[in-house]
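Field guide to reading this record: the first block holds the primary sequence, the second block holds the structure written as C-alpha cells, and the final block holds curator observations. Each block starts with its own label. This record concerns Endonuclease NucS, catalogued under organism Microbacterium aerolatum.

BLOCK 1 — SEQUENCE
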Amino acid sequence: MRLVIARCSVDYTGRLNAHLPLATRLLVHKGDGSLLVHSDGGSYKPLNWMSPPCSLTTEEPGEEESTAGVIDVWRVTHKKTGDALRVQIYEVLHDSAHELGIDPGLQKDGVEADLQRLLAEQVELIGEGTTLVRREYPTAIGPVDLMVRDAAGAAIAIEVKRRGDIDGVEQLTRYLELLGRDPHLAPITGIFAAQEIKPQARVLAEDRGIRCLVLDYDDMKGIESGVPRLF
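BLOCK 2 — STRUCTURE
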C-alpha cells in the first residue's frame, strides 16, 4: 500500500464528472489497484475513489499544467468501464509504501455470524432449487460468506452483513472479480444479503448486476416477523 500526502486537484470522468479543487489530501493506492482520495474530515469515507479492476499510470504534466505548478499527474483508469480519475499533484509532503500482507478478514459479530449460518441452512430463500456448496468459501483475498448453486447449476457468491453499505458491495465486487477467473465457477453472479441495505449500496449493487436480499433475522430464527425479500 502506498500512502501519499500531497497538494493536489482531482477530476473524475466517466458515467459522471466530479472535480476536487486544489487542497492537501491523502492518496491511498492499494495493492488491488484501487485509489482513494481522503481529506482530514468526513470520517472514513473518501472524497473520491476508483475501485478495481483498475490501473494507475503516471503522465508528464502539460505545458500549461507545469506553468501552474503541477509536478506530476496520476491517471487511474477502470479496466471495464473506462472511467478515469486524474490527479494533478502540485507538492508531495509524504510518500511511503508498506507491505501489509494477507488480511484474515473481518471477524463477524454474533448477529452477522448467525445470519450467515441461518441463510446456509435456509438456502431456499435465495430461490427454489438452490443448493449450498460451502460456507466461508476461500479466495486469495479472504473467504466469501456463502457459495451456492441455483437450480440450473450456476454459481452464486453471497456476502452477508447485518447492515449493508457501500463497503460491503465493494468487498463482494472484489470476490466476484477474482472468482470469475475460475472456469469451474464462471459465469458467477453475486447476492448482497443483509438485515438492512442502505439506498446507496443498493444502487451500486444493482448497477454492478448484484442482487440484494433483505433478511428478516427473527423470521429466520423461527420468530414470526416478516419475510425475506429478494430485489
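BLOCK 3 — OBSERVATIONS
The longest strand covers residues 84-97.
The domain at 111-221 is CATH 3.40.1350.10 (Trna Endonuclease; Chain: A, domain 1).
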